[in-house]
Amino acid sequence: MTPNEGLGAHIRRLRRAAGLSQEALARPNLSPSYISLLEAGKRLPSQEVLAQLAERLGCTPRDLTGVIPEPDSVNLEIELSYAQLALRDGDSRTALDAFTALRAKIPAGEERKGLGFATELGIAQCLEQLGQLEQAVRGFESLLERCGEQGRGVLDRLGVAMLLCRCYRALGEVSRAVDVAERALADADAAGLPPTVAQLELLSALIGVYCERGDLHRANFLAGEAMSRAKLMDDRRELGGAYWTAGTALHRRGRSGEALELVRKAVALFAEVDDARALARVRNAQAMVLLHADDPSPETARALLEQSAATLRALGGGLDVVDAETALGRAEVMLGRPEQAIRHAETALGLLGPDHPLERARVHLVLAAAHLLQDDHEAAQAAYGRGALLLEAAEAGRQAAFAWAELGEILEKSGESERAVWAYRRAY
């Protein structure tokens, strides 16, 4: 590999990581054909061009020229690509084995450079997908600290912050998730970074966290920001993601009609791009809005969820499969089919580990509703109590209040007035 080819390959990797097309990277005064020749190693950029590219990619010119792969590293780069492909395909165990083997082959002194960073990032992502969230958090925290120590680009920091935020949310540590995401976004804004995929993904994660915490005003504001930035990118996938996020925020505010309109737009946009996992996830979101709308459509929601669940299982969807199974249970409750609802809920619980309090809480609420349909008040009370305690422990105050209120209704219907008052007090 010549120095020109190494530089071109590195620019291509950074461009793809940023979610930029060759045309977008070329703006404002280069041409897409020049970027294509540059990435192919057929052009050597001037210092002025390097400065422009670095600004668009959220790094420094030295970051672009200082990590050109040596010929001896080509095989390691191939191994890295194989591990990343396995991770994208949902084969987390194979990917973890490949990343771990690669870590042992990285030469001394190179562990903290580009290849080492990508390898450690892959290992942490695999741990997250395998449900080992505490270990994943330690990995992401170390990588985020390394970003600061090594002066890595803003895009690296945004990407790691998004993954760490997502893990903290799954662990129920909502305050930590907010802190990590807000600081990373503020750093990106201070650096004058133009809208990127990494920025929008972190915004989406943060909006979800604020919804969990019940701060719907902040969630709605950030959803508007995400939509504005996505439109500037002229990227259909990211615009779809912004519609999806904004729809979720509106749904949490009780504006289901507007939410459904935005989520349908998101489904249409994702159907145009080659991303089966994202399309299945946004269909999950559409189904959830249909289930909670003023005029719910559980039959339609169930059909969407069965389609998305099948796709996600084939792709190794992890928590996304859990979300689909939980929502299917909710749909079956609304259709008056408690046995099927319990089956979906138990499937979801079987896929979850102890590190997922929010998800387990939601499943217990579905179980409680199903038991209530069967007139099994004792089982319903136990399930609602477990769900509410998990939500409360996870700082998800708004959802916990809802669960305590529902528990109060069950206790009241069961003739246990004193305990019903206690539950209502916990809700309010």
From TrEMBL:
Record's GO cellular component terms: cytosol
GO molecular function: DNA binding; DNA-binding transcription factor activity
All residue ranges annotated as the HTH cro/C1-type domain in the record: 11-64
Coiled coil region boundaries: none
PROSITE patterns: HTH_CROC1, TPR_REGION
Keyword Ubl conjugation included in the entry's annotation: no
InterPro entries: Cro/C1-type_HTH, Lambda_DNA-bd_dom_sf, TPR-like_helical_dom_sf, TPR_rpt, TransReg_Diox_bact_type
Classification via Pfam families: HTH_31
Database matches in CDD domains: HTH_XRE
Keywords for this protein: DNA-binding
Entry protein name: HTH cro/C1-type domain-containing protein
Lineage: Bacteria, Bacillati, Actinomycetota, Actinomycetes, Kitasatosporales
